[in-house]
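User: structure tokens for this one?
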Amino acid sequence: MDEPVLKPNEDSVEDSHSPEIIEKQPLPQDFVEQPQSSESPKQSSAESVKKSRTVRPTQNGATRAGTVKRRTGITNDTDSSPRGVKPSLTKSTVSSTSRLSGTAPVTRRSSTGGLPEKQPITVTKRPSGSVGSGTAKKTSSLATDPMRRSLPEMRKSTLPSTNGRITTRSSISETRRSVPISPLAKTPRSSISSDASKQESVKKTSAILSSPSLSSSRRSASTSLDSTASSVSTRKLTAKLSSPAARSPSVSTGSKGGSLSKVLDRSATSSSRKKGGTTESRDSRLIMLPQVEIKAGDDVRLDLRGHRIRSLNSGGLNLSPNLEFVYLRDNLLSVLDGIEILTRVKVLDLSFNDFKGPGFEPLENCKALQQLYLAGNQITSLISLPELPNLEFLSVAQNKLKSLSMASQPRLQVLAASKNKISTLKGFPYLPSLEHLRVEENPILKMPHLEAASILLVGPTLKKFNDRDLSREEVALAKRYPSHTPVCIRGGWEFCRPEQAVDSTFRFLLEQWKEQLPQGFLLKEAVIDQPFEEDACYCHFNFVKNEAESTGSDINLKYQWFIGERTPSNFREIHGATREFYWPKHEDIGRILKVECTPKLGETEYPTIFAISSPVSPGTGHPKVLKIEVCGDLLEGNIIRGHTEIAWCGGTPGKSISSWLRKRWNSSPVVIAGAEEEEYQLTLDDVDSCLVFMYTPMTEEGAKGEPQYAITDYVKAAPPSVSDVQISGDVVEGNTIKGVGKYFGGREGPSKFDWLREDKDTGEFVLVSSGTNEYMLTKEDVGCCLAFAYVPANFEGQEGKSVSIVSQKVKQAPPKVTNVKIIGELKEGSKITVTGIVTGGTEGASRVQWFKTSSSTFESESCLDALSTSKIAKAFRIPLGAVGYYIVAKFTPMTPDGETGEPVYAIAERAAETLPPSLNFLSLTGDYAEGGMMTASYGYIGGHEGKSIYNWYLHEIENDSGVIIPEFSGLLQYRITKDAIGKFISFKCTPVRDDGTVGEPRTCMGQERVRPGTPRLLSLRIAGTAVEGTTLSVEKKYWGGEEGDSVYRWFRTSSNGTNIEVNDAMTSSYKLSIDDIGFFISVSCEPVRNDWARGPIVLSEQVGPIVPGPPTCHSLEFQGSLVEGERVSFIASYSGGEKGECLHEWFRVDRDGLKDKISCDEFLDLTLEDVGKCVELIYTPIRKDALKGNCRSILSCPIAPGDPIGIELSIPECCEGETIVPKQRYFGGQEGDGEYVWYRSKNKLHESALLNLPSAIEDVHICARTLTYKPSLEDVGAYLSLYWLPIRIDGKTGNPVASVYESPVSPAFPLVSNVRAKELSSSIYLGEGEYFGGYEGSSLFSWYRETDEGTITIISGACSKTYEVVDEDYNCRLLFGYTPVRSDSVTGELRLSEPTHLIFPDIPRIETLALTGKAVEGDILTAIEVIPKSEIQERVWTKYKKDIKYTWFISTETGNNKSFEPLPSQRSCSYRLRFEDIGRSLRCECIVSDVFGRSSDPVYAETPSVSPGIPRMDKLEIEGRGFHTNLYAVRGVYSGGKEGKSKIQWLRSMVGSPDLISIPGETGRMYEANVDDVGYRLVVIYTPVREDGVEGHPVSASTDPIAVEPDVLKEVKQKLETGSVKFEALCDKDQSAKKVPGMGNLERRILEVNRKRVKVVKPGSKTSFPATEVRGTYAPPFHVELFRNDQHRLRIVVDSDNEVDLLVQTRHLRDIVVLVVRGLAQRFNSTSLNSLLKIET
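Assistant:
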């Protein structure tokens, strides 16, 4: 893209005044983004202008003030530095143009870098060859008049649009601000100071005013600063910053007449006061200054630029809280006192003053501040700049800042800090909304990858760095750094390459933490795993013990997790997250986690360390089971629960799959049917089994996780118990009663049942039966009660608690028989018996008679044929004549005395049959031995035999059921196999008749058990390798019963065939030895049965010859004494061929099993290192042919120490306070706690007296009994001696050793320690210290005062140990100074105490707190504090009170405990009681704080329980669209307790009439309108009613008049205009009530209406003519009625005798019919329907 240029001969006028025509304050134009040209990689500041809104071009395309030509082919390729190398600007041609024009110069100091003083400003006429000659002439004539600089046309400029090349208008003043620049000449920057100083003003307005301007110092000379001339190419401006300017109008046009004089006056006045600026002082590339908001009124704008103001408290400033735009640039301000009044200021320009900072605290009141300009001052620090919640733009360019440390600015979008002395990123603030950062011309630019570091510090909001889009390489580089890098950068870490960042940052943090870590521990790791959504994220803090400093205690770690934003800052605590892991939630995705770890060693807690994670990633969606377990007591009957911890990993928790399985011992788990929940109740089947809980997590999206399971121990049976014990059955003589109960507790074993009868005389119960739960009542039981006792017992014999129950008294019964039945086989010749239970008589006296009948049911005795007479015998044999008949038995109960009861008849279940097939004999023959043959034979009766069934069985014992032999089924012969040895054989035959009738089977059991056969071997061979040292085994096949201890014999056969039996080789295996080498080996076996029967001997084939085995060491042992200082060797035995050079290695083994190789010699000299440790020798046998065998090792017992000996002892130099460490040497095992004694003597002891030191010597004193000794004041000038008795660790002592120092102890340099200031009272302090260094002389004391800034000053006159507080000490700290002086006048160093706490007066206190107002819902409670009546408190409250904080609490009751919870939104002294407060108490907490930041103890006031208020309904309104087809609802705000059944009534009201018409039945909250409501207002009356019945005052609300729905209205108008309409309808032909229309009883009708009458016609048919059923006019009482419960029905009433009910298809049609009829009958209506329908009549 070609850039516009300025030729040297083009007209240009430079204005000395900064532009003052802007819209509502925009952001600096340096930060407005434009597309970059391919020919100019670096845009100028003006080309980067950020626009808040695009300005449409004017109609006149030509520029009025100076036209610049477009020059092609010249590109900006001189600026290739990544941070922007400053290119030279071209030389100005102002002087030449000045000579041409001849106009007088106008000078002023420009706040944006204007001309130097006395710089001439001229206007040059454009030559005829320039673009737009007419325009050039006009420009020339206007430019000669300096009064035209502020013409209104300067406000009508345009910006380049996005759809093409646009020419723009520019004002004269804009033309004057542009100076022609040579496109080729390159001069130093100082030569164009006027250009550079003026550029800043142009930058701010170029996008608005579109004037030609200078090119930026960062572009070539061919680039224009403002590319808005007539030939400028199109640029697309995109606003990317959100600021107040973005919402303001684009251009302020203002008035064309009124503003001229104001601008001229301000320009003339300020130009005389301004001082010149230089290019170095005001670089328009880097310093952004605001434009003046001229659209704002004078009441909100203050412009005092260049007035040399020194103080904001001056009387003429007129600062007021209403000001929103304040411009105080170019003044002499040095402090901000007085700025706090600007509470509504939005734009504050304090550029180019004398601020040095700190002192920005007054800005704290400017909460609405959006733009702050502090450029061009002397500010050294921003640390005191407060947090401004709405600040969006901050310019601190051209100051003396060394860092950007300041408070967090939550909405700051642009930070301009160029031309400072910033050299570090330490303390960089938290700026979560920052989009643009500029730090050009700062020493920190030397830092490599500064842009990447800025991206890390700011985060993803950063869009531009140093006025350029972010480099993709730097963005990618920033992503490679660890997540905690921004924290380290803010802490001062030196930025490095990402490959080194992980180790470097950890070392940096470790250096900060090293003084905080527990002693004896090293931190090796502090990291957090990659966090995933809803998955466990673990932190790792790895502490390693330092063995040299370890205390032996284990370290405990406490954790606390935090969540931040997308940058590692502004973390907030996650409540409850105090474990080693944390589960990120869905809302945590993209955010950063932090965990603080607190090490705890014993009872001491150390400062926290931390780790920071990478951003939380979305989950995989596949859940995982982290933990699964089964909770509950594994006892029968209990309920156990499967508990799982699931990581859902971003999926939605769904219905997971649970199942329970039962696993018995040595078997696979089996699924328990129906057990598919997480809870499961243990049953009897689970006893002695393990339960498996299987769990498969599943999300609602259908994703399944891996199934996991947990297995329990074995379930135990519950102790046996019984419940619900009862006696069933009638307690009548002869009946059988039964005792029952519900058993629980494993499988029931031999439970005990006892029946006891009550003794009529004693009342005691006597045992009458046991072992069964049934009991038949006898005659002895009559009149007595029976007791049933149930003792539960399980299979293990464990008994539970006995439970018993007592029955009613037993009643006597008459002779009676029950349960009569015929027993026996109902076949010919069979014997049958009748049985029954006789009560009230005896079975022996009862009689039985037998009958037959052809019917299967009993009718009467007359239908029976007698087979026998009545007799006592109960048995009967079925005769031949009874075959095919049913047998009937007549049982007559009788007593022995002849009393007869009612007979009972029993009939057989089926008719008597013929004899079934059967066997009359069955036998077995054969030899009962293994391999023998058995044969079965039998005899058959019962018709012709068919295919009878044969089966052979084996039995362990004679009477068991046996096991069938399937391969011999159907055969009469069976050959005995080995499986039958020792068992019985049986044959079972089931007779079958030829007609298929099967008879009773019969079994014949063998007479004896099967005997085994004679033992013998079927095969015999030797298995194994013929190598020395291996083991050969015998493989054989045995036959002849169960094998016993067969006899084996091994033989060695030489090459010549000589057999030699191997002695002691009597087993089935044999290990080859060295003696077998070269021989063949064989084995013989004599088979022996388990009953000692023997078979023939068998000899195997030979194997061999035997070859030698590998070399082997058979034995190894130490030789020598295992004592420190001795030499140890060894003895080893070898086998495996000829011995070679074997290996022997010596190892030292400590108690932990760690080995250390120490020698390979044949011996080992034991040293101190070996004491207490074991010595291991590993011996590797090697054959002569170099073949190695398996190594063998031997481990010694611990090495014993030698005798203790003290070899050397000497004492170094002795000085007071310095610890003496004597030099000593010891031998004899590990040294124990030797005995040391230090002696002090006035005179030096002689050598002969050294060993007698323990004896009593005159003037010799014992000083200490330790190895080291620190001389004290008593030792100064005396001689010290040391006595040493060496002792080994096991307590053995050696000979004593003594030493004496040659010189006396010298005194130490005077020092003082533990200097402190002790508070004796609130106003008196005492200085203390501990003196050391000889004897103290006259030491010196002093007192100091320390301020909050850290300044320490001495307090004159305070030279004693005590000090009394004065007023100057408030809000300061006191320090006590102590200068030690020794008695010999030697003076030590001054030591200061730690500062005391801040000195403050008393804290303001509250005596009591009272609440005004009633505890009733809706009332307002107000807290009033009462001040203590004392002069001190009154003075404190008057002078030092700052504010009072109120906190309201509401009561919560849990059981009988009453607690209070805070109401976070209530912070004022007043509180309005709400509905939620009813029945609860309110408590107000009041805390007063003073100006020193201290707070008093809280004071409380509490209310009784809040009562409900009077029912009330506020803001009652009716919702609905206003048409007759809509639904309307009533809505309001109810107060006054819990609402009950409030009363609602809907009514209609005619517009202009006070009368209300009730709508019957409409008492609900919803109302559906209809055509009856057209023209009326709907009114609702709402009477609030509390749930306890208390009523409040009724309130009402109404709608606008109801209108006809538009579609209906359109059709009604059309039909009314015709004047005559016909409608088709249906009529109910059956007028009887209770019928439902539309069910086949409707007839068609025609409704005809016109302006005069209405009639209903029944249409004609083939058999009838049309008939008029109803006819009439609209005169009263004519009307049309609707039915609210039927939207298709209407009634037309002509008079009392003529009316008809009609039905139409839809409600829409019904509404049209009604409105048309009413419209035609309008002259009889009180309100014209046409007026309601808005129809012209």
